[in-house]
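Q: Protein A?
A:
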Amino acid sequence: MKTIRSAAIAAALAVCAVFGAGANAAEAPDLRSSAALIIDEETGEVLYNKNADAVVPIASITKLMTAMVVLDAGLPLDEAIEISQAEVALTQASRARSQLARGMTFTRDELLRLALMASENRAAAALGRAYPGGPQAFVQAMNDKAATLEMYGTRFVEPTGLSSANVSTAADLATLVRAAKDYPLVREYSTAPSAQVRLGKRNFTYVNTNGLVRSATWEIGVSKTGFINEAGRCLVMQAKLAARSVIIVLLDSVGKFTRIGDATRIRQWLEPGYTPPPGMAAAAQRTRPAPAKKPAQAPARARAQLLPPAPG
């Protein structure tokens, strides 16, 4: 079955609460992210599960759904979209940085690239505003898509991830990553190392927010990072490790280097002979251990109440 359904993941989680078949507790990696899930993409086997059903804010992981909704609509990718005061006000209120100024015009394709690769919030917001029916219709389409994918622990209220009311679970996000892989532009833009964009009278170079895509030692098919205070640092990926395709979801990493450190620890677990480049090894070493938690309890800081979608 090509799409991993949330129900199938839930069944697998019930069988494998902490680690997958063929692994034992001593072998499981000591991941610092508060919620984590590793799944074999082909078989659906759960290799690692930590609080995978906790409903938490997901920050800019949201932009994977934003991109899919835009592409599902079949809107012209060469259509010009102007950055409006609405996008400027949104990021100013959240103190999110952006190089996209009011009045600048980009194609829908350029905005998609910036939203996926550089996690550009004004780009994602402009995509939602330019959707037929406007932002409200766009959010409804996001929630409809989540329902179609059986992501029952997921709710969206806006397209950027700046709102902590955008919530999901690690299990649902594994489904999202698998679905995103079916979109060639999502694969291309989310894993592009960098891109040059004309901003006014000068060129500006954007780099991917996931430094792993710039490493020749990683084979990554889909990638997205996220960060707001309520969500911590997040990372989702589809990658080839130990000759198998795996989906990795890491949520609520507290330290700056934790998610990269956790990804490195996962690879060393699945590929015992893997030696990370010095920069990645240093990132893993700089990661501070997380405080002890009860195994079955997700951190209170990351919890969010899942409310029913607003009518309409």
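Q: Protein B?
A:
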Amino acid sequence: MSFIRPEAARGILRWVEPVIGAGVLALLIRLILLRLPEGSVFGWLALIVSVPVGLWLRAALGTALAARQSPAPGIVVIREGEVGYFGPEYGGFVALDDLREVLIAPPGRHRDAAWMLRAGMVDLVIPAGAEGADALLAELTALPGFPDLDAAATLRREDAGVRVIWRRRRRAISS
């Protein structure tokens, strides 16, 4: 028997990794401020270790912010450079190299948030609450200049309009 409601437990567990990352980064910053002015090896080591810990914290924040709120139908499949969605009415696969735009339709009064992946002739709409959609944000960070924290915030924001999160820059043709 649990004294914590399942929804509350999921909410707490969603933020465990960012809290641990912030705590580790705070300890490293304290060590840097205390030891680096002395020229200590520990200060330099803490400075070096703080970079990957900061990147880990950023990824953990993005994952926590983008965590799904309500379940939606369908399954998201991610494999080497490709995103797939199997839904009750539609589905398909899109290669990350073929993507032209990534849009997000934020949650509204009558709909849940959804990812919209545009790749030439193929448009893939993936509900943010679909099984496996949590990993989609981490996969899309491989795109050049993808704003992961902005995308995570847009998934939770309740606006009326669809927002372009990322657009591929056209390659210059050299002669």
